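A quick aside before the break. I want you to see a complete sequence-to-structure record at least once, exactly as it would be stored in a machine-readable document. Don't worry about memorizing anything.
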Amino acid sequence: MKNKSVIIVSGDPKSTFNEILIKTLKNRIFKNVKFPIIIIGSKKVFKKELRKLKVKVNLQNFDNPENLSKKNIYNIDIPIDLKNFSLAKKNSYIEKSFKIALNLLKKGNSLALINGPISKTTFLKGKYNGITEYLAFKTRSHNEAMFLFNKDLSVSPMTTHIPINKVAQKIKKKMIINKINSINNFYKKFLGFKPRIAVTGLNPHCETFKGKNIEKTEILPAIKILKKKKLRVLGPLSADTVFLKENRKKFNIIVGMYHDQVLGPMKTIFGFDAINITIGLPFIRITPDHGPNYKMFGLNKSNPKSLIQAFSFLNKYAIKA
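That is the input. The structure line, written in tokens, reads:
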């Protein structure tokens, strides 16, 4: 294949993703993209959104994977009728979209997968903690990590969408080592340098409490091993001070022990000026840093900033790797 493509799974057909995708296609960043785009999803729904937003794109059927042009946008149509809509039909639509995308990605002719927001509650039904884990299962991956990227500061939680009372039992030395190794390798491959990595503790101020002490038994031993491997890692650090301006500027990425420990501060600092990347899969996977936002569907009020950042990242870094 002459030009490696970016595959986009449009996700929930009643989310705001088609709107933000079209707004991204209008943005100046799109004029400079160095890759063809393949959209997997309903052509009818996408075209309806194009008409509503008064945008014209060169949308073509995906029929010749060996001769794709970066000037075109290709579509693999997954028909769905929004007037005759049900949860079962929506889930089948999303499942089929991912299946087609993963089959294309196995061929090794794509730079990345971008997927639109999907309701974890209605699609995953508790079987997986998130789409990250869903894709890891589908690709038989074991060291996947959620990674929110911003050029000034990124974050990664060691555990993702699990109840807070189950976090401690999931924190293991081996997991920390494997995930931080994946993060370090990602930076070296795509950004060209070894990152400065801060690792938080689990407990407030990394204090010792009665019973098992995660900082001493799991986190600190993992950090010592990573340092022996010449990774630029420091910790465990107190999560309530590591995000202070004078502290966070010392690091490229802050690794936390659970979801809200690092995503809350990250979104407070940067808003939606970040992209959610899954690393440790056989391919780069990116999703905008927001959910389906059903209440905003059809209102033309959604901000495409996160998806614009995703295109910018791929255009600047992935194309060279």
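Two observations worth writing down. The mean pLDDT is 87. The first strand starts at residue 5 and ends at 9. We'll return to this after the break.
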